[in-house]
Fold this sequence. Notes:
Layout: E1 5-13, E2 26-43, E3 47-52, E4 58-62, H1 76-86, E5 94-101, H2 110-125, H3 132-147, H4 154-161, E6 166-171, E7 177-181, E8 190-195, H5 207-224, H6 242-248, H7 254-278, H8 282-298, H9 305-315, E9 320-325, E10 333-338, H10 343-357, E11 366-370, E12 372-373, E13 377-378
Parallel strand pairs: 3-5
Antiparallel strand pairs: 1-2, 1-13, 2-5, 2-6, 2-12, 3-4, 6-7, 8-10, 8-11, 9-10
Helix pairs in contact: 1-2, 1-3, 2-3, 3-4, 5-7, 7-8, 9-10
Amino acid sequence: MEFQYHIFSPYRVCPLGAHVDHQHGIVTGFAINKGVDLWFTPNEDGKVHLESRTFDGVVDFDITKGTLVREMHWGDYARGAKYALKKRFDLKKGINGVVQGSLPVGGLSSSAAVLIAYVMAFAKANDIMLQPFEVVKIASEAEREYIGLNNGLLDQACIALGKKDGLLFLDCDSDDYRIIRRNPEMNDFEIGIFFSGLTRSLVNSDYNLRVYECKTAAWNVLAYQNQPLKEFNKTFLRDIPKESYEACKDRMPARFARRAKHFYSEYRRVRQGVTAWETGNLELFGKLCFDSCESSIHNYECGSPELIAIYEIMRSLEGVYGGRFSGAGFKGACIALVDPACKENVEKELTRQYLEKFPEYEKTFKVFWVKPDDGARFVE
């Protein structure tokens, strides 16, 4: 079947700025040259009919009607996009479409990529002009309020705003962002994506629990400092000075102190990483990625045995500048910045050592090589 439009919405990787966007921290990221393709044709009757080349079943609903409760099905992402758009615009035209993902689910924000594709498609069908950051906000709202994942803007921003020749730097408090162009003196690299063989859903992981723990850490500091408490949903570690945390950290429950320690140390790493990127120092940038993963393991306390094994193996391999868990670090994948001259040996050695430890994943463990790419767009 011929379709009128084609949207490519990339997956994303976040080298620095792990687990801090929901606390209004600062983050970095790339869009990559793998992602979600959505082919569609608008229609006049308001009906949405979607098929998937990745998942079974079809999706049918009326874009003019209110959004019902989640059906726990891949079609929920299309309904979520409709929900968030419908809060702002009158939707009358539907689409007939086919969607396809290009990599296994897990750690690359496939959910945010597909949400952005649907937001762009429904907007196009209804003659709604959206700026890229409006797409970011609408897709993020869909994921928080309809899908039920209490995330920040990192995933959507990388996917919508990314540029192939630069690093996205985003302040999740002010929403200010810039693309830091790649220093011409920087060594070449490719991004290795190492899938553990386990897929995961963030909504069903400890992701939301970690968000609440970070907020509780902020509440602890406010309480120990005799400061007024804000509403829980308006409480963020970004609003708590590091000095206040340092004065209270030994008195608060250890788990909350560790979550806050990760936030403040990651803030510092992102600042250092931006300087390293600007000056073309890929070795330092990579080391900071490794340090970020160490903090994710010990302070944020995420990472399955499988992911930690991949991380430890890739740390030992020549040609790996740096890397960390991709996404929230619950099952899923690890990412690494790798010297292209070494990638063949990295893939061979990492596969061998990982499958020696976890032979049960022989059929599902995968290695992919990707590069930074431009953000979500219509394909001619």
